[in-house]
Amino acid sequence: MKTKISILNYAFSVGKIRALEKFLISQDIFQKAVEANLNDALRIFVEFGRYSEKLLFIKDSADLERVLNQESLNLKLLIKNLILDKGLFPILELDNLKEILEIVNTYGSSYLVEYFRYVIDMHNLKTFLRLYVTKEPEEKLKMNLVCGGFIKKEDFLKLYHQQISSLLRRLEYVYQKTRIVDYTHFFAEAIKKVFQENSFIALERAIQDFLIGVLKPAKYITFGPEPVLAYYFAKTNEINLIRMIILAKLNQFPEVLLKERLNSVYAAR
Q: Most buried of the four, 13, 30, 31, 241, by CB within 10 Å?
């Protein structure tokens, strides 16, 4: 990481983001899109989210991917123009969580460090449960866990051969600096559904809900790259939700099942 740029230099970037945040799609608009037919849902996204009108003319999943991939590319280019600390660019790829944590630790943003430690915990929790359910060898878990979360990698390894109740007890007391976070408040029911219904749908949604909640304090940060990166993650989540909804409608996926998968968004209602 090169010399850190003063957060005051981010005045323009944050101002731009505050203007763009007004066009993030709210939860109630997503609900309307879920309940609408394909053409109406596409119009909703173009109208309320300012997406390309090319979205109105998609005929299949290949068309959808072309349009949304371009939206993602445009988003990344925008964010790169607004991020003044070029050393933060690798964060946009999310390829290597350990490397990203090292970058934000070096940069010195407590907000970004906390966010990515949560991201690592969510990755490890999901990895643990997927391998636990399929009874994969511990060595595979060890290879796929990432160090740096609030829950130590060693803790997950110790719990791997115990009853799932032991994991839930560990999730009740997650030390985050000066406070304790109770993960079971967010994930206990979703984890139960993994075993009761052999489904990760509820867990995936709970994880996205949780991470969106962690992002939201960036709305109150006046200067710095944090609001810019929070917008990027929020917009990426939005694009993923659009992809899910339109693919579901293209494939005549039942509305009730689609609603189960609709996670929270960053935009205000």
A: 30
